[in-house]
Amino acid sequence: MRAIVIGSGVGGLSAAIRLAAMGLQVLVLEKLPGPGGRAFVHRAQGFTFDMGPTVITVPPFLEDLFATGPGDPRLYPDFPKEEGLKHTERYVKLVPLDPFYRLHFPDGTYFDYKDDPEHLKGEIARIAPEDLEGYRQFEAHAKALFQKGFLELGFTHFGSLLDLLKVAPDLLRLDAVRPLFSLVSRYFKSPKTRQIFSFEPLLIGGNPLKVPALYAMIHFVERHWGVHFAMGGTGALVRGLVRKLEELGGKIRYGAPVRRILTKGRRAVGVVLQDGEKIEADLVVSNADYVHTYGELLAPEDRTWNGDWRLKRTRLSMSLFVAYFASRPGGTKGRGFGTTTSSSLPATRSSCGTSSGGRSSPRTSPTTSTSPPSPTPPWPPRGTTPPTPWSPCPTTGAAWTGGGSAPSTWRRPSATWTRRGTSPGSWTAWSTPTSSPRTTSSGP
Fold first, then answer.
1. N vs C: which end of the chain shows fewer Cβ within 10 Å?
2. The Cα angle at residue 196 between residues 189 and 155, in degrees rounded to 5
3. Which of 342, 325, 343 lies closest to 49 in space, CA to CA?
4. In DSSP terms, which residues pair with 263 in a beta bridge?
């Protein structure tokens, strides 16, 4: 049997590896000149820039993937057994971050976020001692959501509305449906701690004011497995996945954009490339966005339930505005980040509302700067990944028409980074909006 996978992002490569381990002939079609999708790598003037994800939160998913072999796709109905990272280390080196994040506030205070419960309590006592008891209650609630929402429901197939209705009582009992920020506000009094324990959805394009409280489980996901960085950047992880796929006999074609998924009797039977080439297959997997897959790759008669009427009403999550920095010789002496991921949180809730649902850049916005671990501090040497700050921004235009351009100017986020000390001084900057709108998605 032959399988075609559209897109060589982390999800596409993961699916391709499983299919190849099952014994299928796998061909991955990628429109870009290299692998990665949103984890694509850009190189300029000797520097390497990760274009998307920067940290890893559940290494067992990768370990399970790298442990696959011919005839052993490791398809289990439950969470993979934890076996260390011995298979992963053959392909990429992951290092734990300590702390996970350093969260900055406009008044100059900061919060070091890590997996040590006593440390977290100490940080809370330092900036909001009135919330110590609230954290104890939140911790217990987040653990219950983690056990139900991640370890159990994360491996539950919802093939029908009835399947979803079966778990609804448990979700309601855990108060998992109300907005995350509302749940956090129930336990914390300080605006700072409310932001600290609700900001993580921003990292996946979610608005803490709107996503369900089930997302509070992220606190325990990070507490349980930590936050890791792939040495050499996310591109090193992508290269490891490509190597694993090729070892299993899979192939990748770059510069091969798909124009249409071919169907016969409501079943995918192949694809047509932009240049008109037809490729037949027994199975087609699309790792492209939901809107692009149903709106562009499938013919209208093949998507009754996901027709134009539905796509036009689809609301996209917020985009990102990213700046890529490279150091000048002599411009970084004595400078450096004390942590790998440094985030600045705004003082108001309106910035999240504007970024996720508005059509203009907010006056204040959460900003994050990732400074990769380097064997030669204080800054990464030439040829490695430099720090990359980013800010969420509104996705403008309709989902169906492929809108989603970032604001036309980057002066406001740039000024924010400079004012808050996130921008590393005398640096040359490249800036770019995200190339396509993001849709909120989940999965390893």
1. N
2. 115
3. 325
4. 268
Alpha-carbon distance 56 to 39, whole Å?
12
Cβ neighbours for 183, distance < 8 A, ≥ 6 positions apart: 141, 175, 213, 216
Ranges of beta strands (E only) in 196-257 are 228-230, 251-253
Element (H, E) at 278: strand 278-280
Q: How far apart are CA 435 and CA 232, in angstroms?
A: 23
CA-based nearest residue to 50, from 65, 60, 28, 35: 35
pLDDT tens, residue by residue, 397-437? 444 443 333 333 344 444 544 454 444 433 333 333 333 33
Closest of 10, 53, 142, 93 to residue 368, by C-alpha: 53
CA distance 81 to 73: 14
Which pTM was predicted? 0.80
Tell me if 181 sits within 8 A of 190, measured CB to CB: no
CA–CA gap between residue 45 and residue 325 (Å, rounded): 11
- Residue 323's beta-bridge partner residues? 431
Other C-beta atoms closer than 10 Å to the C-beta of 403 total: 13
Structure-token pair, residue 325: 């920095």
Taking only the tens place, the pLDDT of each residue in 88-107 is: 999 999 999 888 888 888 88
